[in-house]
Amino acid sequence: MASHSDTLVVFFGATAGANGGKLGSDEREIILLVWQIVDLHEKKVGKLQRRLVKPDSLELTDQSKEETGLSVEELYKAEPLDKVLQQFQQSVSAELKALGRSSYTLCVDGPLIIRQALHPEASKKNLVLPECFYSFVDVRKEFHKCCPNAGQVQDLTLHSMLEYVCIPELPLSEQVMGLKEVRCMVQLSLHILAEPYNHKFSCFEAVKYKLESGACSKTEPVDSETVIRARGLPWQSSDQDISRFFKGLNIAKGGVALCLNAQGRRNGEALVRFINQEHRDLALERHKHHMGSRYIEVYKATGEEFLKIAGGTSNEVAQFLSKENQVIIRMRGLPFTASPQDVLTFLGADSPVTDASDGLLFVKYPDGRPTGDAFVLFSCEEYALNALKKHKQILGKRYIELFRSTAAEVQQVLNRYMSTPLISTLPSSSMVPMPVLATPPYLATGSTRDCVRLRGLPYTAAIEDILEFMGEHTIDIKPHGVHMVLNQQGRPSGDAFIQMRSADRAFMVAQKCHKKMMKDRYVEVFQCSTEEMSFVLMGGTLNRSGLSPPPCKLPCLAPPAYAAFPSPAMLSEAALYQPPLLATPRTPQPPHSPHPTPTLAYYPPQHHPAQLYMNMNMNYTAYYPSPPVSPSTMSYFASPPGSVALAAQQPHAQGHVASPMMPQHGALVRMQGLPYNAGVKDILSFFQGYQYSPEDYSSMVQMSQGQTRSLIQPKEWLCL
Questions:
Q1: How far apart are CA 424 and CA 433, in angstroms?
Q2: How buried is 388 (Cβ within 10 angstroms: 0-12 exposed, 13-18 middle, 19+ buried)?
Q3: SS3 345
Q4: Is the pTM of this model over 0.90?
Q5: What range(s) does the RRM domain occupy (predicted)?
Q6: Element spanning 671, H or E
Q7: Could you tell me which of 443, 432, 434, 523 has the C-alpha nearest to residue 483?
């Protein structure tokens, strides 16, 4: 508008659902619009206009029928919203021309018709609203400014305001919904414009055209009364989609923060910061409104939560985000060797990056290594859309994913990678029971970083390949210090741990062998501690987000693969319900030795007998460690004293069996793939031919998803 002082257009609307103070809270469509022009200079009024609006869904609530007096038949003959808005513009423009006026401002009784009904509905129907609907005055706020003793703004009504200035109500014959409200607002406006008030309308409210991007500092104060949490968002939704969902409400600059999960992907939640509490309260009224086919939950949140997600301290990020009104695209899966020029070439001339290489932000670990993620700035939506068309196209030998992003997501990703070490601090022993291994020469726990982790091994890699990969550093490997990590199917996971003779040697290996090629793949090498290695081998998972504990925090029935068990005299019922233990090499003995070396079982203490049966049906999905081997122990078969041989796997018609070849009086056998109706007799028949006596075995069976676990204590070494 060129000016807000020429003319007022008093405006009113009603929906097919809730009206009054709940207008727009139920997503029902507009069915009625009424308006009238007021000349502020001449104190004249124009013709009262009333239009019915045909909704897409011809359904009216009983409350709406009673309040508006409209029927479905009447609405069926009406024009849709876009046509009625065109009629509104034409009618107002014609009257303004007749009055010799050039501009006007909408005047409404509360902001709901503009903010909660008209803008959201136009956004859903992809309608472009006239400019006049982005600025308005609220007659309640103007009246409160003129008559501050009349009461609080939120408590004012047309009836109370007319009563305060002693204006009589309209006769019952004129109390038709829409017409009544507009006539009352016109009377009230003319009254406060005249003596003795001589009021001038000045409290102009604006509706933002679009979301403003920007950075947020962790030191910036954020009012908790302005923040909400939106939950249930589609994973591919962007900040612009969230802005459209809250269309009509003013979101603060950089006020949309999409939340990420532990893997750095969007988790369907967002924190949104509004310019004031009034807009936040209106946003809460959109609880369970729809974005596409999904309903979105809206709850209160705190400023602290918003800063935790959107706040940042990096100068590099602040400089990157200082360019305002830019479209941000996130690239994921970039080759680690990709340069800014490679990225610019990949995006091409049809999607030029703002300020060329200065519009690129590569995400890196604290040690400077690239993560494969980058953020790109584009000056307009067209360039960003051209870039998104290259989603999953190839750069080098990798396909690249491209997504819309936000300033808050840039902060989150940078904060996460820059603050989280590759191997995070381990939880205390009270949280996860760690076995105390009594054979420190083989796998003693400790915080000394004398181990290395190999990640990205070819699945066909054998011990020989690892030793060849290590090269001259092979001589620094401890005896039995190579630990391949297998998945729950018993196949290589692509990871391995190697114990070195000292932390210095481990550091040297990590420096020399990192990203060295093995066959057709490069292998990442990281320094870590024995304690961290043990934690992973017990079932914990290690990724860029840190170390996750194994699924066996509580005593439960799980496959204690490669664990040692005591002799029958030592075995107790409590020993049957233990988490899996790490492989501990033992000295091989002849199968018929009359005096076998007593074995040691390493169990965490039990706090209460009831805990023995907790989580017995939990699915076990952790990694299984392979038996440790030495550089001289090729293909897993024991050669020097103290090594452990790996059991060969024999396929059978009903399943397969895998067992560590341990020369103890008792050993654990894990059987997978058994029929669901298999019983104890079937298991004993399966082992027919191996030496054991009926009185010398105990069997405990758990059937879960085709897996059976049995404890067998044969008289001799059980070789399967």
A1: 18
A2: middle
A3: helix
A4: no
A5: 227-299, 328-403, 451-526
A6: strand 667-672
A7: 443
Count of CB atoms situated within 10 Å of the CB of 718: 24
- Given the DSSP bridges, would you call strands 266-274 and 105-108 parallel, antiparallel or unpaired? unpaired
The dihedral through the CA atoms of 230, 233, 238, 244 has a sign that is negative
Joined together, the tokens standing for residue 462 give 């054998």
Task: Give me the DSSP letters along 466-516.
Answer: HHHHHGGGGGGEEEEEEEEEE-TTSSEEEEEEEEESSHHHHHHHHHHHTTE
Pair of tokens at residue 584: 């501990």
CA pair distance 560, 578, nearest whole angstrom: 7
| Distance, CA of 623 to CA of 580 (rounded, Å) | 10
Comparison of pLDDT for 282 and 663, the residue scoring more = 282
SS3 709: strand
For residues 451 and 504, is the Cβ–Cβ distance under 8 A? no
Q: Is the dihedral of CA 120, 125, 126, 131 positive or negative?
A: negative
Q: Using CA atoms, how far apart are residues 594 and 375, in angstroms rounded to an integer?
A: 69
Residues 6+ apart with CB under 8 A from 27: 17, 120, 289, 290
CB 375 within 8 Å of CB 324: no
Q: Report, in angstroms and rounded to the nearest whole number, the Rg of the chain calculated over CA atoms.
A: 36
- Using the Cα atoms of residue 293, residue 299, residue 303 and residue 307 in order, give the sign of their dihedral: negative
Q: Is the dihedral of CA 17, 21, 27, 31 positive or negative?
A: positive
Three-state secondary-structure class, residue 61: coil
Q: Evaluate whether 627 touches 636 at the Cβ level (below 8 Å).
A: yes
66: Cβ contacts below 8 Å, ≥ 6 apart: none
Token pair 């970083």: residue: 449
Provide the token pair at 347: 């995006």
- For residue 56, give the amino acid letter: D
User: Do residues 328 and 407 touch, judged by C-beta distance below 8 A?
Assistant: yes
Which tens digits make up the pLDDT trace of 343-401? 999 999 999 999 888 899 999 888 888 989 999 999 998 999 999 999 999 998 899 99
Listed in sequence order, the residues at least 6 apart from 310 whose beta carbon sits closer than 8 Å to its beta carbon are: 216, 254, 257, 271, 273, 407, 408, 411, 412
What pairs with residue 13 in β-bridges? Answer: 33
In single-letter form, the type of residue at position 157 comes to T
Tokens read off for 621: 């999905």
Q: What three-state secondary structure class fits 532?
A: helix
Q: What is the 3-state secondary structure (H, E, C) of 592-652?
A: CCCCCCCCCCCCCCCCCHHHHHCCCCCCCCCCEECCCECCCCHHHCCCCCCCCECCCCEEC
Q: Helix, strand or coil for residue 65?
A: helix
605 backbone φψ class: left, alpha, beta (φ>0; ψ -120 to 50): beta
Q: How many CA atoms lie within 13 A of 586 on its CB side?
A: 25
* CA 680/CA 366 separation, integer angstroms: 55
Return the structure tokens found at 679: 């019983």
Omega before 196 within 30 of 0, i.e. cis: yes
Fill in the amino acid letter for 20: G
pLDDT at residue 673, rounded to an integer: 72
Q: Which regions of 29-108 does DSSP assign to beta strands (E)?
A: 30-39, 44-45, 49-52, 105-108
| Under 8 Å between Cβ of 331 and 402 | yes
Based on DSSP, count helices (H) and strands (E) in the chain, helices before strands.
20, 31
Q: Is pLDDT larger for residue 144 or for residue 539?
A: 144
**Phi–psi pair at 115, nearest 5 degrees:** -80, -35
Residues recorded for the chain: 720
What pLDDT does 690 receive? 56
Which of these ranges, 57-66, 237-246, 488-497, has the smallest mean pLDDT?
Answer: 488-497
